[in-house]
Automatic annotation (TrEMBL):
Keywords: Membrane, Transmembrane, Transmembrane helix. This is PH domain-containing protein. It comes from the Bacteria. Pfam families: PH_40. The keyword Membrane applies. Residues 37-180 form the PH domain. The lineage of its organism: Bacteria, Pseudomonadati, Bacteroidota, Cytophagia, Cytophagales. InterPro entries: PH_40 (IPR058916). The chain crosses the membrane at residues 6-27, 48-71, 77-97.
Length: 197
């Protein structure tokens, strides 16, 4: 099929670049010490946004048919509306959660080393002083469903004796080890369908 003769070389080059990037990442991973300092990184954001963006990328060209609304039959309009609902229903909640988490933790740094009993939070590169004994309670909010794009979006809220509330989101790192580390600090686990802040 010679419909798009430029498409095959473009896909081959894209595949080769992806293999090269992930190969180099794997090799450099062997020689670097794993960091215990977490910030919102491109890699973490890409991992969280991969499926929602892929869904949008596949579905948006079909949604362009709405521009030809006058030429569509009733059957085509129903199918197009159903497709739009599925695409937007799966992608938009994850994108909204990601935007919320990004705005909340853009300038947050988490230093976490459980073996050395280190849990430090920095806001705008300034350490927020607290000890584990200063935690009044900890909210651990996770997604109730395990089958949707926004499953990996969860957060911890640390309520300090001073009244300050620190929010750590999944944009920093997987927070399950942190919640496990804080298990003796009055952790209140909660599940929601959408873990909005």
């Amino acid at each position: 099929m010679k419909l798009f003769p430029f498409l095959r070389p473009l896909l081959e080059v894209s595949g080769a670049v992806l293999v090269l990037i992930f190969g180099l990442r794997l090799l450099t991973g062997f020689f670097t010490k794993r960091s215990r300092v977490y910030q919102p990184t491109f890699e973490r954001q890409f991992r969280l946004l991969f499926w929602p963006l892929l869904c949008l990328g596949v579905g948006l060209p079909f949604l362009a048919s709405f521009f030809f609304l006058g030429t569509l039959s009733g059957y085509e309009l129903v199918l197009l509306t159903a497709l739009a609902a599925v695409i937007l229903g799966f992608s938009v909640p994850a994108l909204v959660l990601h935007a919320q988490y990004y705005l909340r933790n853009l300038h947050t740094t988490l230093a976490f080393e459980p073996k050395q009993n280190i849990l430090e939070v920095y806001e705008n590169q300034v350490r927020v002083p607290f000890a584990q004994s200063d935690l009044v309670r900890v909210e651990w909010v996770t997604c109730a469903s395990k089958q949707v794009f926004w499953t990996n979006y969860h957060y911890l809220r640390l309520h300090l004796r001073t009244g300050q509330v620190l929010t750590l989101t999944a944009l920093l790192t997987n927070l399950e080890p942190v919640a496990e580390f804080l298990r003796n600090s009055n952790v209140e686990p909660r599940q929601r369908w959408f873990c909005f802040l």
